[in-house]
Design brief:
The complex is a heterodimer of chains A (719) and B (55).
Chain A: E1 3-9, H1 15-23, E2 40-43, E3 50-54, H2 66-78, E4 82-88, H3 92-102, E5 109-114, H4 116-121, E6 125-126, H5 128-135, E7 138-141, H6 150-163, H7 175-187, H8 197-205, H9 209-215, H10 219-236, H11 240-259, E8 260-261, H12 269-277, H13 283-300, H14 302-330, H15 334-352, H16 355-371, H17 373-387, H18 395-401, H19 405-410, H20 418-428, H21 437-446, H22 454-474, H23 498-532, E9 533-536, E10 539-542, H24 550-562, H25 570-578, H26 584-594, H27 596-599, H28 604-609, H29 617-629, H30 634-644, H31 647-676, H32 683-700, H33 705-708
Parallel strand pairs in A: 1-3, 1-4, 4-5, 5-7
Antiparallel strand pairs in A: 2-3, 6-8, 9-10
Chain B: H1 2-26
Classes of the chains: A alpha/beta (719), B mainly alpha (55).
Chain lengths: 719, 55
Amino acid sequence: MAIKLALAGNPNCGKTTMFNDLTGSSQYVGNWPGVTVEKKEGKLRGHQDVIVTDLPGIYSLSPYTLEEVVTRDYIMNEHPDVVINLVDASNIERNLYLTTQVTEMGIPVIIALNMIDIVKKNGDRIDTHKLAAALGCEVIETSAVKGAGSKEVADRAVQMARAGIMTRPQHTFSGPVEDALARIRELAADLVPAENARWYSIKLFERDARVLERLRLPADVKAELETIVSDCEKQFDDDSESIITNERYQYISGLMKSCVQKKNAGMTTSDRIDKVVTNRWLALPIFAAVMFVVYYVSVSWLGTIVTDWTNDTLFAETVQPLAGGWLEAAGAAEWLTGLVVDGIIGGVGAVLGFVPQMFILFFFLSILEDCGYMARVAFIMDRIFRKFGLSGKSFIPMLISSGCGVPGIMATRTIENEKDRRMTIMTTTFIPCGAKLPIIALIAGAVFPEITWMAPATYFFGIFMVILSGVILKKTRMFAGDPAPFVMELPQYHFPAPKGVLIHMWERGKAFIIKAGTVIFVACGVIWFLQNFGFTAGGFGMVEDENMSMLAAIGGVIAPIFAPLGFGNWQAAVASVSGLVAKENVVGTFGVLFGLGEVGEDDPALLASLPTLFATSASALAFMVFNLTCAPCFAAIGAIRREMMSAKWTWFAIGYMTGMAYIMAFIINQLGGAFFYGVPFGAGQVLALCCVAALLYLLFRSCNPDRKMRKPATVGAGA
Amino acid sequence: MVTWVILGVILLAAFCAVRYAVRKAKNGECVGCSGCKGRSGCRCGHTAPSGPDGR
């Protein structure tokens, strides 16, 4: 029978890092809490019969959050053979709170004193022998990031499981509480397993709703339990849960005095960095500067150099001529050569050309995340978001969305407030994901090559859209309410682990390449077919003039919708709609239409042809804004549907995003054209000003507190 | 002949790509994400691709 080891601990204490180390997996490790929202399983390296489970990070075993319920239920129902409790040694006092609970569960526990390297670096000392004796379980020093100690912990856990070594909790509560627990234990003796009796007694003492529901105590037992708990509460003049919590902290405080020696109580290196980085006035400019550099280097400078080589040398000068020549030599039909060279290689190549930029961007984002800076960004944004009635908790999914919107949407599960969660789902894809990077790079490179801040500005435009939407939506009955409190532990700064950074970068880049080889490949083939075939006087067949093609006919029907946005031609309309399949498809479609792979994004031919699709540069900007902020790709829409659990809410979210994108693009095109490109003032500009006025009204209108307190939102509930 | 052979290969590749994408979509997973397993939606970075041996 397989041995089951479970990794449990506080959020962001290194569980997933250790999990990856033990199983050889390459799970995404976020340097902020809430990354793991479901348990994950893998086999221990070199032990086919040992299964390691990574549980979501929790601070306690109270049933208040989804993560706590998942972890608790797993330990109680699945009965792992050993729980490896990861304790962040640099925050040991708070981490031990969970440890005191885990050791009471009647399951063998081994403690991995993680991040011990940081403790040693700070000059602090932890007496692990004393700690082990006090907690009644083995303590092993580890540094999961450096891979130190992880194997030792796992090997010891396997030995414990095989030998059946049990953990004997040493911690006891004060006399009256222990008396009450003993009476409860006796009372529920027949209802709970003997090995878990102490944990159940404590939970019954705390009146844990889920345990009470699960045990279905008979009425007389319930009444007696209530008498026991009430008597104790009277004695302490406190509620039962607080009594237990206070006594746990008193115990931990004692442990700290006897086992931990702090070198000094002064500021650590992290504290000193934070004094600057999270400073009230400097935080935002520093964040803006950091993101500017990241996007500038990834998209405008280094990324462009590598992408140009990929497009110009690899595809235009090597792959396409080679493929074309080979097909011709093999005697393939001209249309097939067109399909392969212009359709498939042109379209897929246009998307693949941006892979280097993507790798560079994710490389930098991974470093920022791993070193601990991105966690500070969530803290910084909380301060700003709160001013607008939003919670910083919403920013974590947005940080994740900068990679891919799907996990970003899923990360909203950590937001307990349903209204805030829905609002975050609706706004999180405003942050440009990796798939949107080619759109940014293409438009910024082809239309605004001289504006270096264009690419970084798109990231901040995403944040702006989130704030704008948050303020507007918060003032509606559906989303009204105070923002949920955001408590987040800031990890210590550390040098990023090269392996973790490279894994993160590779995983994201690989997904992009696979998408290009599957979805984009098929889509480009379809686009090429629709572009080259159509109905002519002679019937259905290949057309000489692409304006006679089926694609032109389909695009021509949709195009008028986009005319007010400045790109009312069939090419841009088709590119925008094809973005629903995958956002990379926008560029892939241009690749097929203009042979992007052939010419390269900064080729004069493209510079001449792409801008002809847009009335002015403002229209090109409107095109980019619309495609960055409108309804996300089908995969993300599917994720929205699953997380909203309501068709009505899903349609509302898609409609809202597309509507907002349309309005913003309309304003940019109409007013940008009039103010900067000499477009004469007319009805469009008046309507755009009306839209601005309407947005300003929605932004600054007072929120009626009475209306806030009315019955909760019912839109889509249960649909 | 060459034309039809190459077209056949392209169509086969397209069929495989569509089938892969549809299967992924049916399971609520996203294309390209190797970490997606099970029916609880894409968990890019949120779930484990089992053991190092791929099983």
